[in-house]
Amino acid sequence: MESNIVKELNGQFDPIVLIKADEKPEDALAPKAGRGGCVMSLVGQTIAKRKVTAFGRENITCGGVSAGFGWGTGFKTDEDRAFQATFLSLGTESAKDKDAFLHRLSFMPKPTQEMFKKGERIFSDFDTAYENIKNRPLYDEGQYVIFKPIELLEEGEIPDSVVFTLNTMELSAILQLNGSFRTESAHIMTPQASACQAIGAFTFEQNGSEDSVPVLSPLDFAARAHMRRLIPDEYMNLSMPWKLFLKLEELSKKSVFQTHFWDDFGNK
Known about the structure:
Blueprint: H1 4-9, E1 16-21, H2 40-49, E2 53-56, H3 63-68, H4 78-88, H5 98-105, H6 110-118, H7 126-134, E3 144-149, E4 161-166, H8 168-179, H9 195-199, H10 201-207, E5 215-217, H11 221-227, E6 236-241, H12 242-251, H13 260-265
Antiparallel strand pairs: 1-3, 1-4, 2-3, 4-6, 5-6
Helix pairs in contact: 2-11, 4-7
């Protein structure tokens, strides 16, 4: 599709779209069977290389992506949830049962063990991490999540959401555009969550809101580490429901993009 926002931004990375589906395109890039890893490394291929990527229930690469892409909680037991809360907080220091935690780590590769022992430290303590995990938006629908460049969106195809990848000036412009029709100042979400959950479940949640807002990510450095080969560190993702994108698309035709400020600060 042709987008006025894309034309006005003229950025290094055009937006991509997320589509929930029950079938995946045959030519889509997908995780290899039996191999783990962060899904954001493949999403980065869609952003930077304009490749179609697909992820399915049959080949989930980590527990977090299950909740992130709308396939349940990702945890079979409460012990699994506690293990994740331990990792997301202070690692071994936060473990309720240190021996059990270390035993579980012993089956992992050495570099992964060290990472889990230290913890990702997204949360300050185990209890905060555990409650946050419990309160994530959860969905259980569809077999696949597909990412494709917006220019490959076919006529009549309606995505669930749009993901922008923006530098500071581009982000400023889109945030100003997003606030231009609102009467309150708080109009963006920055969830304390993994990148796949931010562009997935937290954005899905906004689609169900009458006053949806964009979701800014990634805040987790793990996702950034997997994306930085393709996307410079100074870029952020801003995801939003399709309905909000369409609203901003119309607003963009009479907006900050037509001012001398954008002439000075925007991309030429």
